[in-house]
Amino acid sequence: MTHTTVAEVRRISGVTSIDKASDDDVRDAIVEAEQQLEKYLNASFTPQEIIENLDGNGTYRIFVSKNPLLAVRALKIDGADITLDGNIFFKKPSGKIELNPNGAPETSRFKKGSQKVIIKYIHGWLEQGNKSTELTADSSPGQNVDLSVASEAGFSKNDWIEIYGMDGNHEAAKITAVAANQITVDNLSFSHEDESIVIKLEVSEVIKKLMRIFAGIALVARVVGESSEDIVGYSIGEFQVQKGEPYTQWRETTVQLIKERDEILQRVRKRPAVF
Q1: Is position 1 within any domain?
Q2: Is 151 left (phi over 0), alpha (psi -120 to 50) or beta?
Q3: How wide is the angle at C-alpha 173 spanned by C-alphas 215 and 143, nearest 5°?
């Protein structure tokens, strides 16, 4: 899945002609750029499900290795499956998971020992967008859950949403179907009360711009490499015609793109890794 378009990369790079780069070339540049940016920022911009084996620490809190943490799907401590609803809380930015200290003794601590904890969770660097609605009825944990909402307008299949309310429960889920005043999601781990907020999750515009710049720089570099054999001048008898060096123009474009990239990267922090 890519998060920017061929037209947007052509616009920001100035490589507007398909003679210089086909649409397939631009798409390849986008895919490569987004993969490079994910590695550089230590994040995924498409939600990913992962199963992680961790050492228990004897406390009621533990950190998963990938963040932001969008949802916890399953938890096993020392071989026992833990019911998530009512027994755990988690922090989205840091990836911290906490057990309910008021729960049963077997669910109030991450039992100490090598790989005593197995967690299935979803992580991804998505932010709340400007499209939201609210639940019009309580919902329960489960798979393929139908959510009654005030309005489904602006939500589509395969969108990711975040649900949170005054009950303190929050999590992300993927939309599998949309109908009148109803949104169906793939999975819920927690109950959610009536009037909870349902908000669409998106890749931030700043990150999207970085993706376009990364792809634009790669695209310009490709055009410059392929222009090495371009004819830049003609001689006809005593007359000479000079077209100008195309590299000089593309060099200035690259300088500006790199400057803008570096300015944005100074404001965007890499995601911390937990080991």
Answers
A1: no
A2: beta
A3: 140
- Distance between CA atoms of 121 and 88, rounded to whole angstroms? 13
Backbone φ/ψ region at 113: left (φ over 0), alpha (ψ -120 to 50), beta? left
pLDDT at 234: 47
CB half-sphere exposure, 192, CA atoms < 13 A: 28
**Residues of the domain holding 252:** 6-43+204-265
Residues 6 or more apart whose CB falls under 8 angstroms from that of 125 comprise: 41, 43, 44, 45, 68, 203, 207, 271
Task: Please report the pLDDT score of residue 108 as a whole number.
Answer: 81
The CA distance from 165 to 183, in Å, is 17
pLDDT value for 247 = 61
- In terms of domains, do 142 and 169 share one? yes
What angle, rounded to 10 degrees, do the helices at 205-226 and 23-41 form?
Answer: 130
Instruction: Provide the token pair at 196.
Output: 């909870």
The number of distinct structural domains making up the chain is 3
In angstroms, the CA 202 to CA 209 distance is: 13
